[in-house]
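Hey,
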Amino acid sequence: MSDESVILINLLKVDPGKQAALIALLKQNTETVIRTLPGWKTTRLIAAKDGAGVVIYSEWESPAAVEAMRADPRMKAYFPKISALASLDSVVGSAVFNEAR
């Protein structure tokens, strides 16, 4: 494995009719908080076509960077806002296979 990035996948199941509000909140958080954190590399938001979910795909330099992000007071302020719109499940791991054309 050549890329040692830590991948964080957040699966958010959004309440009906609230996907756009959730995406706006996640974009704002990424632009104002996430991108300023040490160890952050990239974030991609993926919206379910049926409006029922959003996936956050992000890459970090290390597991410690992910933990520091979660402990950051600015992030802790966002968590209740996100939970008001959606339920959250997370997976932290690393890429074990990648194929592209």
